[in-house]
Design brief:
This protein is of the alpha/beta class. The chain has helices at about 1-10, 20-25, 40-50, 70-75, 90-100, 145-160, 180-185, 195-200, 240-255, 260-265, 275-285, 295-315, 320-355, and strands at about 35-40, 60, 80-85, 105-110, 135-140, 170-175, 205-210, 215-220, 225-230. It starts with a helix and ends with a helix.
C-alpha cells in the first residue's frame, strides 16, 4: 500500500502538453540563445534514464525551457528539483509545473555560468570524495552556445571540488552537439581526439549514451545531438592543478596536425625554448614525433609532472604565455616602424627647409 502511495506521488496531474504550453505562452526558440525544444516525452524520459535512479534524488536541471525534460525528471521520482533558467519567458510555464508537483520543484532565474549551485542544496546530502557519489544529479538539454564553456567550468570545479562538487562526485547527464559529444568521448588516436577529450577523461568516466536526430527538436538544428554521462573519478588520472593541465593540453593541441614538440615548445620563452622543450620531453619520456591526438592520458600526466618540476626550477615560467610575448613583439615592431616613419618625415622636412634657403 505504501509503495502504491509513493508511486502515485511521482505521477503528475493532467497538464497541457509541451506543444500546448508553447502555444499558450507564445514561446519561440531564440536563435541567438541557441534554443531548441525537445517535445517528444519518450526522448526526454530516455535522457533521464541515463542519469540512473532518481527516486528521492536531488536534481539540478540546466535551462529547462518549456519544461519537457523537467516533467521526465519529476516522473522519475526526484524529491527536490532545482531548475535554473535564464529566459524569463519560460517562468509562467515552469510555475504551472511547480504547482503540479508541490514541494518538489524550485525555480531559479539566473545564468548557469554564474549561478552558485553549492548554495542550492542542503549540506547533509554531501559524501566524501572517495565515497559513492551523492544523491545529486545535474541534468540538462544545453544550448549549443554555452555547452563547451559550461563543461569546462564544471570540470575545473570538479578538479578543485568546488561548486556542486562540494557535495562529492556529483554526476552529470547533458546534451551536446554531436561533434562535441564525440570529442568528449574520443579515444587516444581517433580523429575526434581533442583538448576536450583529455580534460574530461582525466577527471571523469565519460560515457556516450545515445544520439538524438536533429529532426526531433523544434526548431530543427542543422546537427544531431549527443547525450553524454559524466561520473567524476575518485582519483583523477593527473594529479596536478587544473590550470596547469589545461595549459599543457591547450598548447599541445594548437598544432594538432604537427608533431607534439611544435605545440609544447610554446610553453617556454624563446630564449630557452629548444633547451627546455628537450628537457620536458626527455623527463616525461614522450616521443616528440607523436601527434597530439596520439598522446595518451598517462603521457599527458608525465608531461604535467615534468612541466611542474621545470616551473619549480625556473622562476616565472609558470606565468609565461607565448601569446603575450608575441603581442609585445608586434607592439615593438609597430613602435619601431612608427619611429622610423617619424625620423624619415623629420629628415624630409629638414631637407626641404635647407633647399628653400
Amino acid at each position: 500500500m505504501a509503495a502504491t502511495q509513493k508511486l502515485a506521488c511521482y505521477r503528475l496531474p493532467p497538464l497541457p502538453t509541451i506543444g500546448e504550453i508553447i502555444k499558450l505562452y507564445n514561446l519561440r526558440a531564440e536563435k541567438q540563445l541557441s534554443q531548441n525544444f525537445l517535445l517528444d516525452m519518450r526522448l526526454t524520459d530516455k535522457i533521464v534514464r541515463q542519469a540512473g535512479n532518481l527516486k528521492d534524488a536531488h536534481v539540478c536541471e540546466v535551462g529547462p525551457g518549456p519544461g519537457g525534460l523537467t516533467r521526465s525528471i519529476l516522473k522519475a521520482g526526484a524529491a527536490d528539483l532545482l531548475v535554473v533558467e535564464k529566459d524569463t519567458r519560460f517562468m509562467a510555464g515552469l510555475q504551472l509545473l511547480s504547482e503540479a508537483a508541490p514541494g518538489r520543484m524550485r525555480i531559479a532565474h539566473g545564468d548557469i555560468l554564474r549561478y552558485r549551485l553549492e548554495r542550492g542544496f542542503p549540506a547533509h546530502i554531501a559524501k566524501t570524495w572517495d565515497d559513492v557519489p551523492p544523491n545529486l544529479h545535474i541534468i540538462g538539454n544545453l544550448p549549443f552556445s554555452v555547452s563547451t564553456p559550461l563543461i569546462i567550468k564544471w570540470l575545473e570545479q570538479m578538479s578543485n571540488r568546488t561548486g556542486s562538487f562540494m557535495f562529492g562526485r556529483t554526476r552529470l547527464t547533458l546534451t551536446f552537439q554531436k561533434e562535441v559529444a564525440e570529442r568528449l568521448t574520443a579515444s587516444t588516436g581517433s580523429r575526434q581526439r581533442s583538448r576536450l577529450s583529455v580534460m574530461a577523461q582525466y577527471l571523469c568516466t565519460v560515457k556516450s549514451c545515445f544520439t538524438i536526430p536533429g529532426r526531433a527538436f523544434v526548431p530543427k538544428p542543422i546537427v544531431d545531438v549527443g547525450v553524454v554521462h559524466f561520473t567524476p573519478l575518485a582519483q583523477p588520472q593527473i594529479q596536478q592543478p587544473f590550470k596547469l593541465v589545461e595549459k599543457i593540453v591547450k598548447n599541445a593541441f594548437q598544432f594538432r596536425r604537427k608533431h607534439c614538440r611544435r605545440g609544447l615548445q610554446m610553453l617556454f620563452p624563446e630564449s630557452q625554448r629548444l633547451e627546455l622543450t628537450e628537457e620536458l620531453l626527455r623527463s616525461a619520456d614522450v616521443d616528440p614525433t607523436l601527434r597530439p591526438t596520439e598522446i595518451s592520458i598517462s603521457e599527458f600526466r608525465a608531461l604535467a609532472d615534468a612541466y611542474s618540476q621545470l616551473c619549480k626550477e625556473n622562476q616565472g615560467l609558470s606565468d609565461y604565455e607565448f601569446r603575450e610575448e608575441l603581442k609585445l613583439k608586434h607592439q615593438e615592431k609597430r613602435q619601431s616602424g612608427s619611429n622610423r616613419k617619424g625620423l624619415h618625415l623629420h629628415t624630409t622636412i629638414e631637407e626641404n627647409v635647407i633647399g628653400n634657403r
